[in-house]
Amino acid sequence: MIRIKRIYEAAAKEDGTRILVDRLWPRGLKKQDAKVDLWLKEIGPSDELRKWFSHDPDKWEEFKKRFSAELDKKRDLVQVVVDKAKEGDVTILFGSKEERFNNAHALADYLKRKKKIQFTAGRE
Question: What percent of the chain clears pLDDT 70, i.e. is strictly above it?
Fold first, then answer.
């Protein structure tokens, strides 16, 4: 199972492998305090796409399409997340204040569509 969680929330035993999927390290958070097992910064959206989107809900559907096209070219990184999920629980971490319209949720949508990955209820 895969969960989605804001990195500023406390780590929990049920998180399993914690994977940060942001290109930039979250502000104000020390790496030793983050309890991140894997930082896949290259799986995040390109700087151009990230800046264009700027967490604007009106751009959400277009952002997901563009990000999906970028993810299609990053199959090896996507496979890392899939493989970790096959091994056990995974929590995809994001730093944005925007809880819903962010790259972690777009990645989750991509994984559901392309890889048929299951997510826990609640944080989708």
Answer: 93
Question: Is the separation of the CB atoms in 57 and 101 below 8 Å?
Answer: yes
Compute CA distances 104 → 65, 86, whole Å.
Answer: 14, 19
SS3 13: helix
Task: Tell me which of 67 and 2 has the higher pLDDT.
Answer: 67
CB 61 within 8 A of CB 102: no
Grouping H, G, I as helix, E, B as strand and the rest as coil, residue 123 is: coil
The CA distance from 105 to 113, in Å, is 12
Q: For residue 99, which phi and psi values (nearest 5 degrees)?
A: -75, -25
Question: Can you give the residue range of the structural domain that contains 68?
Answer: 2-115
Residue 124, in any domain of the structure: no
Mean pLDDT, rounded, for 66-73: 97
Residue 120 lies in a domain: no
Tell me what pLDDT residue 117 has: 65
Tokens of 100: 């819903």
Q: Which pLDDT score is estimated for 4? A: 95
Domain count, the chain: 1
